Amino acid sequence: MDKKLEVKNLQISFRTQGGILKAVRNISFDLYKGETLAIVGESGSGKSVTSKAIMGILAGNSIVEGGEILYDGQDLLKISEEDFHKLRGDKVAMIFQDPMSSLNPIMRVGQQLTEAMILKAKTGKKNAKHAFNSMLKLLGENINAAYAESGKDASAEVAEKLKRFDTFCVAATKIEREFNEAYGNAMQLEVDIQDAVLMLQKQREINLISKLKRFRKLITLSFNPYVIVKGAEADAFLGKLTTHISEKKEIKREAVLATLEELGAFVKKVLEQEKPNFFTLGYYMTAKPGEDLSKMDVAEMNRMTRKFLDEDFLFDFIATAEKGVAYSHNKSIAQKKAILADLQAALAYFKAGKIEEEKANAYWKDLSAKVEKALDRLNVKKASVEYVFHSAFGNAIEEYFKGVKRNPVEEKIYLKNKKKYDALVAKGVQPDWVLTPQVVIDLELKLGNICKVLENLYNHYCDDIEKDASFDVNASVVDIIDFFKDQAAKFVVKMNKRIAKAKAIKLLEEVGIPEPTTRFTQFPFEFSGGMRQRIVIAIALSANPDILICDEPTTALDVTIQAQILELINVIKKERNLSVIFITHNMGVVANMADRIAVMYAGKIIEHGTAEEIFYEPAHPYTWALLSSMPDLHTTEKLESIPGTPPNMIYPPKGDAFAARNKYALEIDFELEPPLFEVSPTHYAATWLLHPNAPKVEMPQLIKARIERLKKERE
Known about the structure:
This protein is an alpha/beta fold. It folds into 4 domains: 3-107 and 523-590, Rossmann fold (3-Layer(aba) Sandwich); 114-313 and 477-490, no CATH class; 329-471; 596-714, Rossmann fold, CATH 3.40.50.300. The chain is 56% helix and 11% strand. The protein is built from 21 helices and 12 strands. The strands form 2 sheets. The chain has an 8-stranded mixed sheet with strand order 6-7-8-3-9-10-12-11, with helices on both faces. Strands 2-1-4-5 form a 4-stranded antiparallel sheet, sandwiched between helices. Helix 6 (232-247) runs antiparallel to helix 7 (253-272), helix 8 (278-287) packs across helix 9 (298-352) and helix 12 (389-426) packs antiparallel against helix 13 (443-467). The longest helix has 55 residues, at 298-352. The relative contact order is 0.13.
């Protein structure tokens, strides 16, 4: 499975009046394409802080003490706000607990939807064009280098092939642009017809002549060989509309309603028909200009143009591209092998502990330059750990030496203030000011962060070198061609207010808003809580994100509406192949939607595994406690609450943070923090109860009985 997001050793704290609060403590997890990862835990466990870090919306008093959040070759903790603007809402979207906090109360919901679409479309076109041209140039350079290595100059031949590829991609985008414009008009026509039909059915006042003239215009604007084809059927509808318009005051509403219902069915059928493969059609029309394929069945046309492209050009182009891809890959692997020894030497130096700033920076500059040379830039599936090494390593070193310089100053100031404070107290005077705790940077933690950056890269390189023998050059070339197709599709997108409105109404329909055309013009206060949450989901989906973060999206809703929203998120995830991070304090909410679950407590992930493992084979006492407090229809016993309260994370506990609330706690739980023990290759839990020498402790009978009942229900 493709990784969409990697969180590595994330550590986040907050400055408070009482001191530094450790909110997230060294957590790591991956999110894969098309999966739902649920993060579950009580309030204050660090769930929402993690999601806000991914979105780049942490509070101003936050301190990112270490770690990486890797997405598409970038560390989201290090990029600028300008770069984040390209990702936030576009690639990574989020829905919150209270929908009203996400909606502008004085702006109509339709405007809030269309505004986001238009702004993102403009930015996306520019970025896509740059990405397409850069990759094409890079591919050509590597193909030429591969030929040069074997003593052949094929630059003219390569340039001609790349030019042909570029030319037909441009032709394909032109056909797609024209199609999209006509298709957008047809979408608008369908929406407007639905609105008019509803008005007529409810006997409401409507300016029929004006509406019919608009429908007639939209039909002509929708003419396209692959949308509404000019011909007898379209002419018949134009004729009927013209006849109704000429009747003026004698116009019959029943007859118009019948015509519109018939026209609406026709347009709906047009919009549901198979779309052309623009990539293959673009090549065919470039190779055989002027040929008319409009009367051919679209499915048959797609098969024919695919075959023609493959045999006339693409197979040969792929064979040529493979030379460049193989050259780039082999060069990268050779460089990675050469760097391994340098990484080991650097790791040994930093692990020794006695480091000097000048030598540390020399390591940073030397290794960064070598890692940059080792990048395989033709691999469209970017390995983020390589691309962010320069910033991650440099930042980790900078943070360490910031502490070396700042800590003595902080301590001096603190001791001076404490002396004043203690002197006043000794005189019997209660100071009217608070003694602020000293903010000391944990140098051991910062040094560990430096080592982790080096270890992550070293392990990644070893993994790449091991997989080299099974490298599939053809699959890599196909990935590059898919990349070109994706980028080309983005820079032909035409988005104006009319098209945006049609798409927005379709989105409202997709998320289950009834009468979307009417409700498009309403304000958020005119909707119920559940409907507002559906609107927020529609806004989040408007830019077709890769990742959707749901932060307690059902907490403010009643139970019936909760179930509907959860089902909606499930359906959307499957239809759009989204990756979802679902944050909740309620284990029952994620029972039927999560693929994997991470249980958080006191800023740490204390258990993670597949949904089935967490629900049927829970291993941590805190997970037992969460399951014990979860109601269901069949449990007759009194539900168990978790005793006590979470610890004050300004003063993190010495051992297991859950020990004080855990009736199964061992003596070691109060002394040492447990590591993550492997329960299975996909299931881990941080509890000393899993140690081979630990006493045998059974999970509560309430949980056992529930698991047995659920297993029987599944059979």
